[in-house]
Amino acid sequence: MSKTGLIFDVDGTLCNTTDVVLKVWGRVLNDMEYPHREMTADFIKRYMGKPMDDWAKGIMPEVDLSISCPIVEECCQEEYKEIDSNGTSLYPHVHDVFKQLSEDYHLYILSNCGKGYIERIMKQAKIESYVEGHLCFGDTGLDKPDNIKLLVKEQGLTSCAYVGDTERDQKCCIEAGVPFIHAAYGFGSADAEYSIQKLKELPSVAKQLFASED
Question: Domains of the chain by range and CATH?
Answer without folding.
Answer: 4-16+89-213 (3.40.50.1000), 18-86 (1.10.150)
